[in-house]
C-alpha cells in the first residue's frame, strides 16, 4: 500500500488520539512518509520546513481512521440469509465486494476485520487493496465459515441434496472441524469464523439460546487453527456457548450477547475482545416489518438487542475490550451506514463518545493484530487519520454523513473525503 512522501501537518482542530484520553483542543498531527512523528498540542509542535504540506482541519476533529471489526464485504445488502448461497456467482460477488470495500473507506473506515465471507473472497480483496489495485480498508481476512450440521447457517433441507459450498463448511464432529480448518489454511486466511450458537434471525433452525457446536468441535477448530497461526472467532449469543468458546481458547467473541457473572470473569481473565454488532439487531427491530420479518423474529432481535447492550456495557465498565462492527450487508442494515453503530452505542447503550471512539479505533486495531501500527494517533504509527468537519464529541452522529469527512487518510495518502478528487460511491443491488 502506497504512502505519501514528504511531511504533512494537520492543524486547527481538536485532536482525539484514540487512547481514550481527553481531546486536545488545539492539536497538531505531523507525519512524514506516511508515519506519524508528532501528535499533541499545536503550541508544542516542532518547527517544520517550508515544503510541509498543511491541512487545515477548520476547527473540526482530527482522529484515527475507524476500524470496522465485523465486516462482511461479500454480503450484498441481502433480504434474507438464503440469498447468500443461491443468488449470485463468485464473479459477481467479488465485484460487489470490491465496491463495498471502497464504500467503507469513503465512510472513514481505514481498516476492517472480516466476520466471514463467501468463497474466501476476502483473501483476494486484501491482496488487491494492499497492492493498490482497488481502494478499501486494510483488511484482516476471514473465509468460508464453519457451522455444525443443523446449525444457524445450515438452512438447506436435506431433500434438496445441495451443500453450502460457497458460504460455509458443514461439519459433524471434531474430525470434520479439523478438516475444514485445514482447507482454509491453504487459502491464507487470518481468521476462522464459527457458529457455536443460534440466532433470532433463524428461529426455525435454532434460536439465540441454542448451542449449535459441541465443545469437542470448537476445541478441534481452535487447536488446528492456532497450530497454523490463525485466530478463531465465533457467533456466540447463548450463555453456555460463550463459555465453551472461552474454554476452547477463542481469540474474540462475536456478539457475546447473554453473559452471566462467570462468563464476564472468563472474558476479563483472558482479556478476550467482544464485538457486540448491535446495530444489526436495532435495524432488524426498526425496519424488520418493511422487509417482511415475522414478528417472532423481530421479538427475538429485541431480546438480543437488550441483552447485548447490557452485556457490552458490563464488559466495558469492568475493564474489558469492546470492538465496533455492526454486521452490515443486509437490506435493512446496508453497507455505507457503518457509523450508525457508533451513534447507537453512544446515545443509547451508555458509552461516552471517547469510549466509543476508542473501541472503534484502538481496540479494533488490536483485534486485527495491528495495534502496534494503527488505531491511535501516536508517534511511530501509520498515518491512518480522519479529518472531520465538526465536533465528534459533541455529536458523534456527524460521522454518519460522508459529507462531513474532509479527509480520509490511509498511510498518509488522502484516499477519500471532500478534499479528495474522487467522487463518493454507492451501490444498489437489485432485489
Descriptive notes:
With 431 residues, this protein is α/β, with parallel strands linked by helices. It folds into two domains: 7-64 and 375-416, Urease, subunit C, domain 1 (Roll), CATH 2.30.40.10; 66-368, Alpha-Beta Barrel (TIM Barrel), CATH 3.20.20.140. The protein is built from eleven helices and 16 strands. It has helices spanning 83-86, 90-106, 121-130, 174-185, 215-227, 239-248, 261-270, 279-287, 295-317, 340-349, 353-368; strands at residues 7-15, 24-32, 35-41, 53-64, 66-71, 109-114, 138-140, 145-148, 168-171, 191-194, 231-236, 253-255, 274-275, 385-388, 405-410, 413-416. The strands form four sheets. Strands 3-2-1-4-14-15-16 form a seven-stranded mixed β-sheet, with no helix packed on it. The chain has a four-stranded parallel β-sheet with strand order 10-11-12-13. α3 (121-130) links the parallel β6 and β7. It starts with 6 loop residues before the first strand and ends in a 15-residue tail after the last strand.
Amino acid at each position: 500500500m502506497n504512502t505519501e512522501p514528504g511531511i504533512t501537518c494537520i492543524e486547527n482542530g481538536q485532536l482525539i488520539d484514540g487512547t481514550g484520553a481527553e481531546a486536545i483542543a488545539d492539536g497538531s498531527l505531523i507525519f512524514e512518509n506516511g508515519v506519524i512523528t508528532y501528535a499533541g498540542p499545536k503550541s508544542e509542535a516542532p518547527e517544520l520546513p517550508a515544503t510541509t504540506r498543511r491541512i487545515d482541519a477548520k476547527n473540526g476533529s482530527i482522529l484515527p481512521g475507524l476500524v470496522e471489526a465485523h465486516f462482511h464485504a461479500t454480503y450484498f445488502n441481502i433480504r434474507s440469509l438464503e440469498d447468500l448461497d443461491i443468488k449470485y456467482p463468485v464473479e459477481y460477488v467479488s465485484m460487489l465486494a470490491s465496491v463495498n470495500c471502497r464504500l467503507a473507506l469513503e465512510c472513514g473506515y481505514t481498516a476492517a476485520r472480516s466476520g466471514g465471507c463467501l468463497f474466501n473472497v476476502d483473501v483476494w480483496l486484501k491482496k488487491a487493496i494492499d497492492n493498490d489495485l482497488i481502494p478499501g480498508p486494510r483488511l484482516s481476512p476471514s473465509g468460508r465459515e464453519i457451522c455444525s450440521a443443523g446449525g444457524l447457517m445450515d438452512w438447506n433441507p436435506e431433500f434438496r441434496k445441495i451443500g453450502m459450498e460457497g458460504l460455509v463448511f458443514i461439519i459433524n464432529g471434531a474430525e470434520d472441524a479439523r478438516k475444514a480448518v485445514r482447507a482454509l489454511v491453504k487459502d491464507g486466511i487470518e481468521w476462522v469464523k464459527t457458529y457455536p450458537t443460534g440466532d433470532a434471525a433463524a428461529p426455525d433452525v435454532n434460536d439465540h439460546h441454542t448451542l449449535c457446536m459441541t465443545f469437542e468441535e470448537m476445541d478441534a477448530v481452535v487447536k488446528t487453527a492456532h497450530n497454523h497461526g490463525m485466530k478463531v472467532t465465533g457467533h456466540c449469543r447463548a450463555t453456555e456457548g460463550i463459555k465453551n468458546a472461552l474454554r476452547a481458547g477463542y481469540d474474540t467473541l462475536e456478539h457475546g450477547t447473554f453473559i452471566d457473572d462467570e462468563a464476564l470473569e472468563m472474558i476479563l481473565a483472558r482479556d478476550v475482545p467482544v464485538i457486540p454488532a448491535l446495530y444489526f439487531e436495532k435495524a432488524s427491530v426498526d425496519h424488520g416489518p418493511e422487509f417482511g420479518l415475522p414478528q417472532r423474529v423481530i421479538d427475538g432481535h429485541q431480546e438480543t438487542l437488550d441483552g447485548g447492550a447490557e452485556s457490552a456495557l458490563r464488559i466495558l465498565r469492568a475493564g474489558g475490550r469492546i470492538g465496533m462492527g455492526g454486521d452490515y450487508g443486509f437490506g435493512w442494515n446496508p453497507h455505507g451506514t457503518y457509523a450508525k453503530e457508533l451513534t447507537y452505542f453512544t446515545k443509547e447503550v451508555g458509552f461516552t463518545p471517547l469510549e466509543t471512539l476508542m473501541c472503534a479505533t484502538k481496540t479494533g486495531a488490536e483485534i486485527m493484530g495491528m495495534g502496534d501500527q494503527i488505531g491511535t494517533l501516536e508517534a511511530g504509527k501509520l498515518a491512518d487519520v480522519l479529518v472531520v468537519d465538526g465536533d465528534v464529541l459533541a455529536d458523534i452522529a456527524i460521522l454518519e454523513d460522508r459529507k462531513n469527512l474532509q479527509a480520509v487518510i490511509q498511510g498518509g495518502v488522502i484516499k477519500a473525503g471532500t478534499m479528495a478528487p474522487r467522487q463518493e460511491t454507492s451501490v444498489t443491488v437489485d432485489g
